[in-house]
Amino acid sequence: MDDAAVLKRRGYIMGINLGEGSYAKVKSAYSERLKFNVAVKIIDRKKAPTDFLEKFLPREIEILAMLNHRSIVKTYEIFETSDGKVYIVMELGVQGDLLEFIKTRGALQEDDARKKFHQLSSAIKYCHDLDVVHRDLKCENLLLDKDFNIKLSDFGFSKRCLRDESGRLILSKTFCGSAAYAAPEVLQGIPYQPKVYDIWSLGVILYIMVCGSMPYDDSNIKKMLRIQKEHRVNFPRSKHLTGECKDLIYRMLQPDVNRRLHIDEILSHCWVQPKARGLSSAAIKEGESSRSIDPQWTPEPGSDKKSATKLEPREEARAEARHETRPETKPEEDTVQVARQSETLGFSSEQMIRESEEGPPQQPPETHT
User: Fold this and answer.
1) CA neighbours within 13 Å on the CB side: how many for 45?
2) Separation CA 37–CA 52 (nearest Å)
3) pTM (predicted TM-score)
4) Beta pairing partners, 192
5) Which residues 6+ apart lie within 8 Å of 189 measured at CB?
6) Are the CB atoms for 208 and 218 separated by under 8 Å?
7) CATH (residue range 13-91)
8) Residue in 111, 112, 131, 136 annotated catalytic
9) Which of 26, 126, 146, 331 is the most exposed place for a label (fewest CB within 10 A)?
């Protein structure tokens, strides 16, 4: 029985194809019971790799069944057919994803970014309080509903955190997610705290929201790591960001895992609180930099400058990245994904050198309000 017939028997009228990968695809469908459109993720067990079937898929199904938060994509139904196909019926992000939104409209104004980032952070706090980590936070996985509210999706890399006998979280050892959003400790293959990894990815997302570009040039992972470990964060002067916003991003993009913010600290930060923003927007003066701009932002001689940060349509690759649950990969295996991600957003590398100012904010980094 084909997918349309299977879905019809369950009360869904299949619509258009939303994305397709090597062993999973996503279709739109109209639910006769719910009376609105949904997204249906269809996974073919016969085509999926063993590690996905034994580890990632069971985790994803378990976690999706337990989540219930207004800023997380709702899961309405999960069922499997005798021929080995799994159907996950989910809330549809009718306005697309945040990456497409920013590519179309440019960087968000801080008030809009604050609202969306607060929604996302609330969803992450909900997950972390349940000891669930996402581990693949990126703009492609943030869907937008009809009112452009954030809906966190794609829990294919998520897991329940394990604790030792003393109650401490056990470190994770596997690289997963997209290199452009991955924390330095993950890229280096160091055992990492998965909740702390999520926080770094939140920092990258907020930077993209307000700057419309990537915080780091990820076309060369070794160079990117060096800049990250020196705690360098360059902000485009042209965006005129407030000091509070830069301060929050800088503290999330903290290479020292013991000093990186926790989710509760993010939600209580003065920039996230709409009525209590305390830092002066002049905390970082225009054009002022604590260090010189790092020369590694310059493209390699003879390289295609467009490949660094220029927005280009990547329909087939983007559909697979958004909708297919992928097995975990080692950093050295991620070169194709890194190259693709580095082309998704922002200014050219030359513009980033010419138009950037560097953190840290002059407000002491350890002060929280």
Assistant:
1) 14
2) 28
3) 0.77
4) 172
5) 175, 330, 331
6) no
7) 3.30.200.20
8) 136
9) 146
Please, what CATH class does the domain formed by 98-358 belong to? mainly alpha
Q: Do 181 and 138 touch, CB atoms closer than 8 A? A: yes
CA distance 1 to 225: 49
* 112 catalytically annotated: no
Residue 360: asked if its preceding bond is cis (omega within 30°), the reply is yes
Phi, psi of 270 (to 5 degrees): -60, -30
Place of tokens 């929604």: 119
pLDDT in tens, 107-123: 999 999 999 999 999 99
> What tens digit of pLDDT does each residue of 247-295 get?
999 999 999 999 999 999 999 999 998 654 444 444 433 333 333 333 2
List the domain boundaries for the chain. 13-91, 98-358
Q: Distance between CA 107 and CA 127 in Å, rounded?
A: 27
Sheet holding 36-44, edge to edge: 12-20, 24-31, 36-44, 85-91, 75-80
* 46 known member of a binding site: no
CA-CA-CA-CA dihedral for 75, 81, 83, 85, to nearest 10:
-10
Q: Distance between CA atoms of 212 and 236, rounded to whole angstroms?
A: 9
Report how far residue 264's alpha carbon sits from residue 126's, in angstroms, rounded to the nearest whole number: 11
Q: Are 180 and 224 in contact (CB under 8 A)?
A: no
Rounded-to-10 torsion of CA 227, 347, 240, 143: -90
